[in-house]
Amino acid sequence: MAGKFQLSKFLDLDIDDPFFEPLISDYPEDENNIGFVKWFDKKSREGATALVFNDESGMGAFICLKDENEPLVLQHDVIPAVPRKKISTLRLAERYRGQRLGEGAIGLALWNWQKSNQQEIYLTVFEKQDVLIDLIEKFGFKMMGYNENGECVYLKSRKNLDYSDPYKSFPFINPDFETAGYLIVNDIYHDTLFPYSELKNTIQEQVALSVANGISKIYIGSPYNRPHFQIGEPLLVYRRYTNGPGQKTYKSCLTSYCVVTDVIIAKEYNRSLITIEDLLRRISNKSVYDENEIKIKYENEKNLVIIEMLYYGFFGEGHNINHAWLSSNGYFASGVYPTENRASPEQFKALLMEGDVDVSNVIID
Questions:
Q1: How many domains does the chain have?
Q2: Mean pLDDT of all residues in the chain?
Q3: Angle, CA of 106, 14 and 100, to the nearest 5°
Q4: C-alpha closest to that of 301 among 337, 340, 265, 268
Q5: CATH no. for residue 290?
């Protein structure tokens, strides 16, 4: 799946594209509704934009977001007006049903909501859209009732986040975490696993796999000791500079932060704890390694650990925190490999602030 999300104008999109046929069918014009065709034309005239994913087969996803501050009228209830984000349209091509493109689409919408500081985000779906419903429920949206068109209204609120699962609370981190870890990723793999970190002078597509569009990530490592990471724990992603001009202490840096969703010990002291078939099934397409590379690691590494995580956020160009700063400010102990270092909640928050992240908009008490 080669492709990426881009912000596109409605005016540049073709409503006659077969991709839009289900939307035209599901939202016809009637006495109470403008219908999808007229809505699309109105958006085009207004110069509106949408997040669009295109690949070699054409359009794969379409997301349109809208700001609102009005009551949500349900069949048997009214939800009071607050500043909220509406996912007014979200469609995935049939060829991506059950794949990670939908996860990436929801992730982008939730990041947009987070940055807006709005209290709620919602969308409406028909009951027949079971795959989409499963996806939004996974990300913490809750069914509030039916609107007057008979659609299910699903809503997520900052005031009622479910921290029992990192997916449900995304993109907000559980404030009760006890410690945070560091994940070390070599530059060439980092820039594919974490494509939004916006480093200069990197080859983002050098490892051309399909992981760039999902927010669930897999790290495969061969540590000397069993890692300390726990499910629900934040991780700071450290991009290790391996090749090129310049001093590594100024080129290697923290770029992103994630939350652990699973830790799999595949091998320990040359003893296999799960089969290669189970390992490949668990990893799916979330790793930067292809199947053959994973098999080689499985056969040859003494220890093999898989960290599953959700990509919660990034510092961005000009805000990444280099090794020199981390060492001089006491975050990396001298002579200790970065993965063995730990960050307290206070240190983790301080690092987010150093990366120009609004901590109060990431960790909500």
A1: 2
A2: 87
A3: 25
A4: 268
A5: 2.30.130.30
